[in-house]
Amino acid sequence: MNPSYDDGDTRYAYAVGRIRTLEARLLDGQRVERLVEAKDFEETFSILRETDYGEEFGEERVASLQEIEQVLQIKREGAYRTFTELCLDEEVRELILSTQDYQNIKVLIKGSVTGEDSDFALSQFGILSGEKIKRIFKEGRSQGFSTHLRKAVEAGLSYDTPEWIDIAVDHEMFRFWSARAKEVGNDFILGFIQLILDLENIQTFFRIRRGEGGLSFLEKALFFNGWGEDTMSLHRDRFLKAFESPWEGISSYFFATPYERVLREGGEYLERKGSFASLEKLCDDCRMEYLRSTRLMTFGVEPVIAYLYAKENELKILRLVFLGKLYGITQEKIRERLPEVF
Amino acid sequence: MKLDVNPTRMELLRLRRRIGLARRGHKLLKEKEEELMRRLIPLTKVVRELRRRVEGLLREAFQKFLIARGGMDPEVLESAIVHSQNPLQVEATTEPLLNLRLPIFRFTASKIQDSRFKPSYGFWGTSGELDTALEEYTLALQNLIPLAEKEKALQLLAGELEKTRRRVRALEYRLIPDLEETTRFIQMKLSEVERSNLTRLMKVKDRIDLDHRQCREGGDQDALNQPAHHGSRDRPE
Questions:
Q1: Scanning A10, A163, B6, B131, which has its CA 20 to 30 A from the CA of A24?
Q2: pLDDT band for position B176 (cuts 50, 70, 90)
Q3: Closest Cα partner for A149 from A193, A88, A108, A201?
Q4: Which helix (H) or strand (E) covers residue B106, if one does?
Q5: Is A106 in Cβ contact with B129 (below 8 Å)?
Q6: Could you tell me the pTM of the whole model?
Protein backbone atom coordinates (compact mmCIF):
# COMPACT_ATOMS: atom_id res chain seq x y z
CA MET A 1 0.00 0.00 0.00
CA ASN A 2 1.38 3.39 -0.91
CA PRO A 3 2.42 5.64 0.58
CA SER A 4 3.56 3.98 3.82
CA TYR A 5 1.51 4.91 6.90
CA ASP A 6 4.60 5.17 9.02
CA ASP A 7 5.92 7.95 6.87
CA GLY A 8 2.90 10.04 7.75
CA ASP A 9 0.21 9.75 5.15
CA THR A 10 -0.57 13.39 4.35
CA ARG A 11 -3.49 12.31 2.16
CA TYR A 12 -5.38 12.02 5.44
CA ALA A 13 -4.70 15.56 6.61
CA TYR A 14 -8.25 16.70 5.87
CA ALA A 15 -9.77 13.43 7.13
CA VAL A 16 -7.93 13.59 10.45
CA GLY A 17 -8.88 17.23 10.90
CA ARG A 18 -12.52 16.37 10.36
CA ILE A 19 -12.30 13.35 12.61
CA ARG A 20 -10.89 15.49 15.43
CA THR A 21 -13.93 17.75 15.18
CA LEU A 22 -16.25 14.75 15.22
CA GLU A 23 -14.37 13.20 18.13
CA ALA A 24 -14.91 16.36 20.15
CA ARG A 25 -18.64 15.83 19.72
CA LEU A 26 -18.58 12.32 21.14
CA LEU A 27 -20.08 11.86 24.60
CA ASP A 28 -17.52 12.21 27.38
CA GLY A 29 -17.35 10.11 30.53
CA GLN A 30 -18.93 12.80 32.68
CA ARG A 31 -21.97 13.09 30.46
CA VAL A 32 -22.35 9.32 30.29
CA GLU A 33 -22.27 9.25 34.08
CA ARG A 34 -25.02 11.89 34.15
CA LEU A 35 -27.04 9.79 31.72
CA VAL A 36 -26.69 6.74 33.94
CA GLU A 37 -27.69 8.74 36.99
CA ALA A 38 -30.67 10.37 35.27
CA LYS A 39 -33.75 9.49 37.24
CA ASP A 40 -35.97 8.87 34.25
CA PHE A 41 -36.29 8.77 30.52
CA GLU A 42 -37.07 12.49 30.18
CA GLU A 43 -33.95 13.50 32.07
CA THR A 44 -31.78 11.54 29.65
CA PHE A 45 -33.35 13.54 26.83
CA SER A 46 -32.59 16.83 28.54
CA ILE A 47 -28.94 15.76 29.02
CA LEU A 48 -28.70 14.74 25.38
CA ARG A 49 -30.13 18.09 24.32
CA GLU A 50 -26.68 19.59 24.96
CA THR A 51 -24.98 17.04 22.69
CA ASP A 52 -24.78 15.94 19.09
CA TYR A 53 -28.07 14.11 19.65
CA GLY A 54 -29.91 17.31 20.57
CA GLU A 55 -31.81 17.51 17.33
CA GLU A 56 -33.22 13.99 17.59
CA PHE A 57 -33.75 13.67 21.33
CA GLY A 58 -33.98 17.32 22.36
CA GLU A 59 -37.65 18.00 21.82
CA GLU A 60 -38.77 14.66 23.18
CA ARG A 61 -40.24 13.66 19.86
CA VAL A 62 -38.85 10.22 20.46
CA ALA A 63 -40.91 8.22 22.89
CA SER A 64 -40.66 4.50 22.17
CA LEU A 65 -37.72 2.13 22.05
CA GLN A 66 -38.38 1.53 18.37
CA GLU A 67 -37.99 5.25 17.67
CA ILE A 68 -34.80 5.36 19.74
CA GLU A 69 -33.43 2.42 17.74
CA GLN A 70 -34.26 4.29 14.55
CA VAL A 71 -32.34 7.35 15.73
CA LEU A 72 -29.37 5.23 16.77
CA GLN A 73 -29.47 3.48 13.41
CA ILE A 74 -29.43 6.84 11.60
CA LYS A 75 -26.41 7.90 13.66
CA ARG A 76 -24.73 4.59 12.90
CA GLU A 77 -25.40 5.05 9.23
CA GLY A 78 -23.83 8.50 9.49
CA ALA A 79 -20.69 7.07 11.10
CA TYR A 80 -20.34 4.45 8.36
CA ARG A 81 -20.90 7.10 5.69
CA THR A 82 -18.20 9.27 7.26
CA PHE A 83 -15.83 6.31 7.36
CA THR A 84 -16.50 5.39 3.72
CA GLU A 85 -16.00 8.99 2.70
CA LEU A 86 -12.81 9.60 4.67
CA CYS A 87 -11.08 6.24 4.24
CA LEU A 88 -9.08 6.70 1.07
CA ASP A 89 -7.64 3.19 0.89
CA GLU A 90 -9.94 0.67 -0.65
CA GLU A 91 -8.18 -2.31 0.97
CA VAL A 92 -8.67 -0.84 4.43
CA ARG A 93 -12.25 0.14 3.68
CA GLU A 94 -13.00 -3.37 2.48
CA LEU A 95 -11.30 -4.86 5.51
CA ILE A 96 -13.27 -2.81 8.02
CA LEU A 97 -16.64 -2.97 6.28
CA SER A 98 -16.37 -6.65 5.34
CA THR A 99 -17.72 -7.63 8.77
CA GLN A 100 -21.15 -6.41 7.61
CA ASP A 101 -20.90 -8.43 4.37
CA TYR A 102 -20.04 -11.54 6.33
CA GLN A 103 -22.96 -10.84 8.63
CA ASN A 104 -25.25 -10.67 5.59
CA ILE A 105 -23.80 -13.90 4.19
CA LYS A 106 -24.59 -15.62 7.50
CA VAL A 107 -28.16 -14.28 7.48
CA LEU A 108 -28.77 -15.47 3.92
CA ILE A 109 -27.25 -18.94 4.38
CA LYS A 110 -29.10 -19.52 7.64
CA GLY A 111 -32.30 -18.28 5.99
CA SER A 112 -31.89 -20.72 3.10
CA VAL A 113 -31.10 -23.63 5.44
CA THR A 114 -33.80 -23.05 8.04
CA GLY A 115 -36.39 -21.65 5.63
CA GLU A 116 -36.95 -18.64 7.88
CA ASP A 117 -37.21 -15.33 6.11
CA SER A 118 -34.71 -13.08 7.85
CA ASP A 119 -34.06 -10.41 5.23
CA PHE A 120 -34.95 -7.78 7.83
CA ALA A 121 -31.68 -8.68 9.59
CA LEU A 122 -29.56 -7.72 6.59
CA SER A 123 -27.06 -4.98 7.30
CA GLN A 124 -26.84 -2.01 4.94
CA PHE A 125 -23.38 -0.90 6.02
CA GLY A 126 -21.23 -3.39 4.11
CA ILE A 127 -19.27 -3.02 0.90
CA LEU A 128 -22.24 -4.60 -0.86
CA SER A 129 -25.67 -3.38 0.12
CA GLY A 130 -28.01 -5.86 1.77
CA GLU A 131 -30.22 -5.93 -1.33
CA LYS A 132 -27.33 -6.54 -3.69
CA ILE A 133 -25.80 -9.31 -1.64
CA LYS A 134 -29.22 -10.95 -1.35
CA ARG A 135 -29.80 -10.76 -5.11
CA ILE A 136 -26.43 -12.33 -5.89
CA PHE A 137 -26.99 -15.06 -3.30
CA LYS A 138 -30.53 -15.87 -4.41
CA GLU A 139 -29.49 -16.04 -8.06
CA GLY A 140 -26.72 -18.43 -7.10
CA ARG A 141 -24.13 -16.33 -8.89
CA SER A 142 -21.32 -16.82 -6.44
CA GLN A 143 -18.88 -15.41 -9.02
CA GLY A 144 -20.60 -12.08 -8.28
CA PHE A 145 -18.88 -12.13 -4.89
CA SER A 146 -15.25 -11.33 -4.30
CA THR A 147 -13.00 -14.35 -3.66
CA HIS A 148 -13.10 -14.07 0.14
CA LEU A 149 -16.89 -13.82 0.26
CA ARG A 150 -17.21 -16.74 -2.15
CA LYS A 151 -15.07 -18.84 0.20
CA ALA A 152 -17.28 -17.82 3.11
CA VAL A 153 -20.43 -18.81 1.20
CA GLU A 154 -18.93 -22.20 0.36
CA ALA A 155 -17.82 -22.74 3.97
CA GLY A 156 -21.22 -21.73 5.33
CA LEU A 157 -23.19 -23.88 2.91
CA SER A 158 -21.27 -26.99 3.95
CA TYR A 159 -23.12 -26.93 7.30
CA ASP A 160 -26.78 -27.24 8.06
CA THR A 161 -27.09 -25.86 11.56
CA PRO A 162 -27.15 -22.09 12.27
CA GLU A 163 -24.39 -22.17 14.88
CA TRP A 164 -21.98 -24.04 12.61
CA ILE A 165 -22.83 -21.81 9.65
CA ASP A 166 -21.98 -18.81 11.82
CA ILE A 167 -18.75 -20.36 13.05
CA ALA A 168 -17.63 -21.42 9.55
CA VAL A 169 -18.31 -17.96 8.05
CA ASP A 170 -16.67 -16.20 11.01
CA HIS A 171 -13.55 -18.32 10.55
CA GLU A 172 -13.43 -17.32 6.91
CA MET A 173 -13.85 -13.70 7.94
CA PHE A 174 -10.88 -13.84 10.30
CA ARG A 175 -8.81 -15.60 7.64
CA PHE A 176 -9.59 -12.77 5.27
CA TRP A 177 -8.93 -10.14 7.93
CA SER A 178 -5.55 -11.53 8.87
CA ALA A 179 -4.52 -11.94 5.21
CA ARG A 180 -5.71 -8.45 4.35
CA ALA A 181 -4.10 -6.88 7.42
CA LYS A 182 -0.76 -8.43 6.48
CA GLU A 183 -1.25 -7.24 2.92
CA VAL A 184 -1.96 -3.68 4.05
CA GLY A 185 1.07 -3.81 6.32
CA ASN A 186 -0.21 -1.29 8.80
CA ASP A 187 0.92 -2.09 12.35
CA PHE A 188 -2.09 -0.43 13.91
CA ILE A 189 -4.51 -2.48 11.82
CA LEU A 190 -2.54 -5.68 12.40
CA GLY A 191 -2.54 -5.05 16.11
CA PHE A 192 -6.24 -4.22 16.12
CA ILE A 193 -7.25 -7.38 14.25
CA GLN A 194 -5.04 -9.38 16.60
CA LEU A 195 -6.70 -7.73 19.58
CA ILE A 196 -10.20 -8.45 18.27
CA LEU A 197 -9.23 -12.06 17.59
CA ASP A 198 -7.81 -12.53 21.07
CA LEU A 199 -10.78 -10.92 22.78
CA GLU A 200 -13.21 -12.99 20.73
CA ASN A 201 -11.30 -16.16 21.66
CA ILE A 202 -11.38 -15.19 25.33
CA GLN A 203 -15.14 -14.68 25.25
CA THR A 204 -15.68 -17.88 23.25
CA PHE A 205 -13.51 -19.75 25.76
CA PHE A 206 -15.66 -18.66 28.71
CA ARG A 207 -18.93 -19.19 26.85
CA ILE A 208 -18.09 -22.76 25.85
CA ARG A 209 -16.62 -23.49 29.26
CA ARG A 210 -19.85 -22.39 30.88
CA GLY A 211 -22.14 -24.06 28.36
CA GLU A 212 -22.00 -27.45 26.74
CA GLY A 213 -19.82 -28.79 23.96
CA GLY A 214 -16.60 -29.38 25.82
CA LEU A 215 -13.03 -29.26 24.67
CA SER A 216 -13.66 -30.64 21.18
CA PHE A 217 -16.18 -27.89 20.50
CA LEU A 218 -13.78 -25.25 21.81
CA GLU A 219 -11.07 -26.58 19.52
CA LYS A 220 -13.30 -26.09 16.51
CA ALA A 221 -14.82 -22.79 17.61
CA LEU A 222 -11.63 -20.93 18.54
CA PHE A 223 -10.32 -18.66 15.85
CA PHE A 224 -7.04 -19.80 14.43
CA ASN A 225 -3.93 -17.96 15.43
CA GLY A 226 -2.95 -16.04 12.38
CA TRP A 227 0.33 -14.79 13.72
CA GLY A 228 1.84 -17.64 15.67
CA GLU A 229 3.68 -17.65 18.96
CA ASP A 230 6.16 -14.99 17.94
CA THR A 231 3.52 -12.29 18.40
CA MET A 232 1.68 -11.18 21.51
CA SER A 233 -1.42 -12.90 20.24
CA LEU A 234 -2.77 -15.67 22.43
CA HIS A 235 -2.19 -19.10 21.00
CA ARG A 236 -5.16 -21.43 20.99
CA ASP A 237 -3.17 -24.01 22.98
CA ARG A 238 -3.34 -21.76 26.01
CA PHE A 239 -7.12 -21.91 25.90
CA LEU A 240 -7.18 -25.66 25.37
CA LYS A 241 -4.86 -26.19 28.34
CA ALA A 242 -6.82 -23.82 30.57
CA PHE A 243 -10.18 -25.32 29.67
CA GLU A 244 -10.37 -27.94 32.39
CA SER A 245 -8.73 -25.74 34.99
CA PRO A 246 -10.82 -24.30 37.87
CA TRP A 247 -11.64 -20.64 37.32
CA GLU A 248 -9.15 -19.41 39.92
CA GLY A 249 -6.31 -20.97 37.95
CA ILE A 250 -7.31 -19.78 34.49
CA SER A 251 -5.53 -16.42 34.64
CA SER A 252 -2.24 -18.18 35.41
CA TYR A 253 -2.30 -19.68 31.89
CA PHE A 254 -2.42 -16.13 30.56
CA PHE A 255 0.14 -14.70 32.94
CA ALA A 256 2.11 -11.75 31.55
CA THR A 257 -0.23 -11.28 28.60
CA PRO A 258 -2.18 -8.04 28.11
CA TYR A 259 -5.38 -9.94 28.87
CA GLU A 260 -4.53 -11.29 32.31
CA ARG A 261 -6.78 -8.76 34.05
CA VAL A 262 -9.64 -9.37 31.62
CA LEU A 263 -9.48 -13.09 32.27
CA ARG A 264 -9.07 -12.76 36.02
CA GLU A 265 -11.72 -10.14 36.72
CA GLY A 266 -14.15 -11.20 34.00
CA GLY A 267 -13.79 -14.86 34.96
CA GLU A 268 -14.29 -14.13 38.63
CA TYR A 269 -17.41 -12.08 37.99
CA LEU A 270 -18.79 -14.79 35.72
CA GLU A 271 -18.15 -17.43 38.35
CA ARG A 272 -19.61 -15.33 41.15
CA LYS A 273 -22.66 -13.85 39.46
CA GLY A 274 -23.16 -16.03 36.39
CA SER A 275 -23.04 -12.97 34.14
CA PHE A 276 -20.82 -12.04 31.20
CA ALA A 277 -21.42 -8.31 31.76
CA SER A 278 -18.04 -7.63 33.35
CA LEU A 279 -16.07 -9.76 30.87
CA GLU A 280 -17.72 -8.05 27.91
CA LYS A 281 -17.18 -4.62 29.43
CA LEU A 282 -13.48 -5.38 30.00
CA CYS A 283 -13.14 -6.58 26.40
CA ASP A 284 -14.82 -3.42 25.12
CA ASP A 285 -12.52 -1.33 27.33
CA CYS A 286 -9.48 -3.12 25.88
CA ARG A 287 -10.65 -2.21 22.39
CA MET A 288 -11.21 1.42 23.36
CA GLU A 289 -7.84 1.64 25.05
CA TYR A 290 -6.15 0.40 21.91
CA LEU A 291 -8.11 2.84 19.74
CA ARG A 292 -7.27 5.75 22.03
CA SER A 293 -3.65 5.49 20.83
CA THR A 294 -4.79 7.08 17.55
CA ARG A 295 -5.42 10.36 19.34
CA LEU A 296 -1.74 11.15 19.06
CA MET A 297 -1.58 10.48 15.33
CA THR A 298 -1.62 13.46 13.03
CA PHE A 299 -1.94 11.68 9.72
CA GLY A 300 -3.06 8.30 8.54
CA VAL A 301 -6.15 6.11 8.32
CA GLU A 302 -5.96 5.08 11.98
CA PRO A 303 -8.04 7.96 13.45
CA VAL A 304 -10.71 7.30 10.79
CA ILE A 305 -10.95 3.65 11.85
CA ALA A 306 -10.89 4.59 15.53
CA TYR A 307 -13.73 7.07 15.07
CA LEU A 308 -15.98 4.42 13.50
CA TYR A 309 -15.48 2.06 16.43
CA ALA A 310 -15.72 4.92 18.94
CA LYS A 311 -19.08 5.91 17.49
CA GLU A 312 -20.28 2.29 17.58
CA ASN A 313 -19.18 2.18 21.21
CA GLU A 314 -21.07 5.38 21.97
CA LEU A 315 -24.23 4.02 20.36
CA LYS A 316 -23.86 0.89 22.47
CA ILE A 317 -23.61 3.07 25.60
CA LEU A 318 -26.73 5.00 24.62
CA ARG A 319 -28.66 1.83 23.82
CA LEU A 320 -27.76 0.38 27.22
CA VAL A 321 -28.72 3.57 29.03
CA PHE A 322 -32.04 3.89 27.22
CA LEU A 323 -32.93 0.25 27.75
CA GLY A 324 -32.01 0.61 31.40
CA LYS A 325 -34.15 3.69 31.89
CA LEU A 326 -37.07 2.30 29.93
CA TYR A 327 -37.22 -1.06 31.68
CA GLY A 328 -36.05 -0.02 35.13
CA ILE A 329 -32.65 -1.71 35.20
CA THR A 330 -30.69 -0.49 38.19
CA GLN A 331 -27.78 1.95 37.74
CA GLU A 332 -25.46 -0.67 39.18
CA LYS A 333 -26.39 -3.21 36.53
CA ILE A 334 -26.04 -0.65 33.75
CA ARG A 335 -22.60 0.38 35.02
CA GLU A 336 -21.46 -3.25 35.17
CA ARG A 337 -21.87 -3.54 31.42
CA LEU A 338 -21.23 0.04 30.31
CA PRO A 339 -17.99 0.30 28.32
CA GLU A 340 -15.60 3.21 28.76
CA VAL A 341 -15.95 6.08 26.35
CA PHE A 342 -13.38 6.75 23.64
CA MET B 1 -91.82 -21.09 50.21
CA LYS B 2 -94.62 -23.53 49.61
CA LEU B 3 -94.87 -24.99 46.12
CA ASP B 4 -98.02 -24.51 44.11
CA VAL B 5 -99.32 -28.08 44.07
CA ASN B 6 -102.60 -29.90 44.69
CA PRO B 7 -102.78 -31.20 48.25
CA THR B 8 -103.46 -34.80 47.31
CA ARG B 9 -102.03 -38.02 48.60
CA MET B 10 -100.47 -38.69 45.20
CA GLU B 11 -98.72 -35.36 45.32
CA LEU B 12 -97.55 -36.06 48.84
CA LEU B 13 -96.01 -39.34 47.74
CA ARG B 14 -94.38 -37.61 44.78
CA LEU B 15 -92.98 -34.86 46.99
CA ARG B 16 -91.65 -37.38 49.48
CA ARG B 17 -89.83 -39.13 46.65
CA ARG B 18 -88.43 -35.75 45.53
CA ILE B 19 -87.26 -34.95 49.05
CA GLY B 20 -85.45 -38.30 49.22
CA LEU B 21 -83.79 -37.64 45.90
CA ALA B 22 -82.85 -34.07 46.87
CA ARG B 23 -81.32 -35.29 50.14
CA ARG B 24 -79.30 -37.93 48.32
CA GLY B 25 -78.19 -35.32 45.74
CA HIS B 26 -77.29 -32.91 48.51
CA LYS B 27 -75.18 -35.53 50.24
CA LEU B 28 -73.36 -36.40 47.01
CA LEU B 29 -72.80 -32.78 46.06
CA LYS B 30 -71.57 -32.00 49.55
CA GLU B 31 -69.07 -34.84 49.19
CA LYS B 32 -68.05 -33.53 45.77
CA GLU B 33 -67.59 -30.05 47.22
CA GLU B 34 -65.38 -31.44 49.94
CA GLU B 35 -63.33 -33.42 47.41
CA LEU B 36 -62.92 -30.38 45.18
CA MET B 37 -61.84 -28.33 48.16
CA ARG B 38 -59.41 -31.04 49.22
CA ARG B 39 -57.75 -30.91 45.79
CA LEU B 40 -57.98 -27.16 45.34
CA ILE B 41 -56.06 -26.08 48.43
CA PRO B 42 -52.79 -27.96 47.76
CA LEU B 43 -53.03 -27.04 44.07
CA THR B 44 -53.29 -23.36 45.01
CA LYS B 45 -50.06 -23.67 46.97
CA VAL B 46 -48.31 -25.40 44.06
CA VAL B 47 -49.51 -22.76 41.58
CA ARG B 48 -48.46 -19.90 43.86
CA GLU B 49 -44.97 -21.37 44.24
CA LEU B 50 -44.62 -22.09 40.51
CA ARG B 51 -45.82 -18.62 39.55
CA ARG B 52 -43.39 -16.99 41.96
CA ARG B 53 -40.56 -19.04 40.49
CA VAL B 54 -41.55 -18.36 36.87
CA GLU B 55 -41.94 -14.64 37.49
CA GLY B 56 -38.50 -14.51 39.14
CA LEU B 57 -36.91 -16.41 36.26
CA LEU B 58 -38.61 -14.27 33.64
CA ARG B 59 -37.59 -11.07 35.39
CA GLU B 60 -33.98 -12.24 35.54
CA ALA B 61 -34.03 -13.48 31.94
CA PHE B 62 -35.56 -10.24 30.71
CA GLN B 63 -32.94 -8.13 32.46
CA LYS B 64 -30.14 -10.25 31.01
CA PHE B 65 -31.71 -10.10 27.59
CA LEU B 66 -31.91 -6.31 27.78
CA ILE B 67 -28.23 -6.09 28.72
CA ALA B 68 -27.38 -8.44 25.83
CA ARG B 69 -29.55 -6.42 23.49
CA GLY B 70 -27.84 -3.20 24.53
CA GLY B 71 -24.42 -4.68 23.80
CA MET B 72 -25.22 -6.13 20.37
CA ASP B 73 -25.89 -4.74 16.92
CA PRO B 74 -29.63 -5.00 16.21
CA GLU B 75 -29.20 -7.03 13.00
CA VAL B 76 -26.84 -9.51 14.70
CA LEU B 77 -29.35 -10.01 17.51
CA GLU B 78 -32.20 -10.52 15.06
CA SER B 79 -30.32 -13.04 12.95
CA ALA B 80 -29.18 -14.90 16.08
CA ILE B 81 -32.69 -15.31 17.40
CA VAL B 82 -34.75 -15.82 14.27
CA HIS B 83 -32.95 -19.01 13.22
CA SER B 84 -33.51 -20.91 16.41
CA GLN B 85 -33.09 -24.66 16.10
CA ASN B 86 -34.86 -25.34 19.33
CA PRO B 87 -38.45 -25.94 18.26
CA LEU B 88 -40.91 -26.40 21.04
CA GLN B 89 -43.66 -28.98 20.73
CA VAL B 90 -46.15 -29.51 23.47
CA GLU B 91 -48.66 -32.34 23.52
CA ALA B 92 -51.94 -31.49 25.17
CA THR B 93 -54.11 -34.27 26.61
CA THR B 94 -56.70 -34.38 29.36
CA GLU B 95 -57.16 -36.29 32.59
CA PRO B 96 -60.63 -36.94 34.06
CA LEU B 97 -61.35 -35.76 37.57
CA LEU B 98 -64.91 -35.91 38.93
CA ASN B 99 -66.87 -34.58 35.96
CA LEU B 100 -63.98 -32.36 34.78
CA ARG B 101 -61.30 -32.91 32.16
CA LEU B 102 -58.08 -31.37 33.45
CA PRO B 103 -55.38 -30.51 30.87
CA ILE B 104 -52.01 -32.28 30.75
CA PHE B 105 -49.18 -30.60 28.81
CA ARG B 106 -46.08 -32.58 27.94
CA PHE B 107 -42.98 -31.57 26.00
CA THR B 108 -42.69 -34.00 23.09
CA ALA B 109 -39.94 -32.83 20.73
CA SER B 110 -37.85 -30.13 22.26
CA LYS B 111 -34.34 -29.45 23.39
CA ILE B 112 -35.93 -27.42 26.15
CA GLN B 113 -36.05 -30.58 28.25
CA ASP B 114 -32.28 -30.65 28.30
CA SER B 115 -30.73 -29.13 31.34
CA ARG B 116 -28.46 -26.92 29.23
CA PHE B 117 -29.66 -24.75 26.41
CA LYS B 118 -27.52 -24.87 23.28
CA PRO B 119 -27.57 -21.62 21.35
CA SER B 120 -28.38 -21.65 17.65
CA TYR B 121 -25.85 -18.99 16.75
CA GLY B 122 -22.14 -18.47 16.55
CA PHE B 123 -19.94 -16.51 18.92
CA TRP B 124 -18.77 -13.57 16.83
CA GLY B 125 -20.83 -10.44 17.51
CA THR B 126 -23.20 -12.19 19.90
CA SER B 127 -23.11 -11.63 23.61
CA GLY B 128 -22.46 -14.20 26.30
CA GLU B 129 -25.21 -12.43 28.18
CA LEU B 130 -27.59 -13.57 25.43
CA ASP B 131 -26.61 -17.20 26.18
CA THR B 132 -27.42 -16.75 29.85
CA ALA B 133 -30.65 -14.87 29.07
CA LEU B 134 -31.81 -17.67 26.76
CA GLU B 135 -30.83 -20.22 29.37
CA GLU B 136 -32.97 -18.39 31.90
CA TYR B 137 -35.84 -18.23 29.41
CA THR B 138 -35.47 -21.98 28.83
CA LEU B 139 -35.57 -22.59 32.54
CA ALA B 140 -38.62 -20.33 32.80
CA LEU B 141 -40.28 -22.25 29.98
CA GLN B 142 -39.63 -25.56 31.73
CA ASN B 143 -41.71 -24.18 34.59
CA LEU B 144 -44.10 -22.15 32.47
CA ILE B 145 -45.74 -25.17 30.80
CA PRO B 146 -46.48 -26.95 34.11
CA LEU B 147 -47.70 -23.60 35.45
CA ALA B 148 -50.12 -23.25 32.53
CA GLU B 149 -51.33 -26.80 33.16
CA LYS B 150 -51.80 -26.26 36.88
CA GLU B 151 -53.36 -22.83 36.54
CA LYS B 152 -55.90 -24.13 34.04
CA ALA B 153 -56.68 -27.06 36.35
CA LEU B 154 -57.07 -24.62 39.23
CA GLN B 155 -59.36 -22.44 37.19
CA LEU B 156 -61.54 -25.43 36.23
CA LEU B 157 -61.61 -26.76 39.80
CA ALA B 158 -62.49 -23.34 41.20
CA GLY B 159 -65.29 -22.93 38.64
CA GLU B 160 -66.64 -26.39 39.41
CA LEU B 161 -66.40 -25.76 43.14
CA GLU B 162 -68.37 -22.56 42.79
CA LYS B 163 -71.03 -24.33 40.74
CA THR B 164 -71.23 -27.24 43.17
CA ARG B 165 -71.41 -24.93 46.15
CA ARG B 166 -74.24 -23.02 44.51
CA ARG B 167 -76.09 -26.29 43.93
CA VAL B 168 -75.51 -27.46 47.50
CA ARG B 169 -76.79 -24.16 48.83
CA ALA B 170 -79.81 -24.25 46.53
CA LEU B 171 -80.67 -27.75 47.72
CA GLU B 172 -79.95 -27.03 51.35
CA TYR B 173 -81.63 -23.68 51.72
CA ARG B 174 -84.24 -23.68 49.00
CA LEU B 175 -85.40 -26.89 47.43
CA ILE B 176 -85.38 -29.21 50.42
CA PRO B 177 -87.04 -26.67 52.80
CA ASP B 178 -89.64 -25.83 50.15
CA LEU B 179 -90.43 -29.47 49.53
CA GLU B 180 -90.64 -30.11 53.26
CA GLU B 181 -92.93 -27.16 53.76
CA THR B 182 -95.15 -28.28 50.93
CA THR B 183 -95.21 -31.81 52.31
CA ARG B 184 -96.18 -30.45 55.70
CA PHE B 185 -98.90 -28.37 54.10
CA ILE B 186 -100.29 -31.35 52.18
CA GLN B 187 -100.16 -33.46 55.31
CA MET B 188 -102.09 -30.82 57.20
CA LYS B 189 -104.58 -30.48 54.40
CA LEU B 190 -105.09 -34.23 54.23
CA SER B 191 -105.45 -34.43 58.00
CA GLU B 192 -108.04 -31.71 57.82
CA VAL B 193 -110.01 -33.57 55.16
CA GLU B 194 -109.70 -36.71 57.28
CA ARG B 195 -110.99 -34.88 60.30
CA SER B 196 -113.85 -33.34 58.38
CA ASN B 197 -114.89 -36.78 57.04
CA LEU B 198 -114.74 -38.21 60.49
CA THR B 199 -116.87 -35.41 61.86
CA ARG B 200 -119.40 -35.89 59.07
CA LEU B 201 -119.62 -39.61 59.72
CA MET B 202 -120.03 -39.00 63.41
CA LYS B 203 -122.85 -36.59 62.66
CA VAL B 204 -124.60 -39.17 60.44
CA LYS B 205 -124.18 -41.78 63.10
CA ASP B 206 -125.66 -39.44 65.73
CA ARG B 207 -128.66 -38.81 63.53
CA ILE B 208 -129.29 -42.50 62.99
CA ASP B 209 -128.94 -43.11 66.68
CA LEU B 210 -131.42 -40.33 67.39
CA ASP B 211 -134.01 -41.81 65.03
CA HIS B 212 -133.64 -45.18 66.65
CA ARG B 213 -134.09 -43.70 70.06
CA GLN B 214 -137.28 -41.84 69.04
CA CYS B 215 -138.79 -45.00 67.63
CA ARG B 216 -138.08 -46.92 70.74
CA GLU B 217 -139.56 -44.23 72.95
CA GLY B 218 -142.88 -44.09 70.90
CA GLY B 219 -143.35 -47.85 71.44
CA ASP B 220 -144.75 -48.20 68.03
CA GLN B 221 -143.40 -51.30 66.49
CA ASP B 222 -144.46 -50.11 63.03
CA ALA B 223 -142.79 -46.89 63.55
CA LEU B 224 -139.74 -48.91 64.13
CA ASN B 225 -140.18 -50.45 60.73
CA GLN B 226 -140.92 -47.03 59.25
CA PRO B 227 -137.95 -45.73 57.40
CA ALA B 228 -136.27 -42.67 58.66
CA HIS B 229 -137.74 -39.47 57.40
CA HIS B 230 -134.80 -38.47 55.39
CA GLY B 231 -134.48 -41.85 53.75
CA SER B 232 -138.17 -42.18 52.80
CA ARG B 233 -137.61 -41.23 49.21
CA ASP B 234 -135.21 -44.11 48.64
CA ARG B 235 -137.45 -46.80 49.94
CA PRO B 236 -140.47 -48.19 48.04
CA GLU B 237 -143.86 -47.74 49.73
A1: A10
A2: very high
A3: A108
A4: strand B100-107
A5: no
A6: 0.81
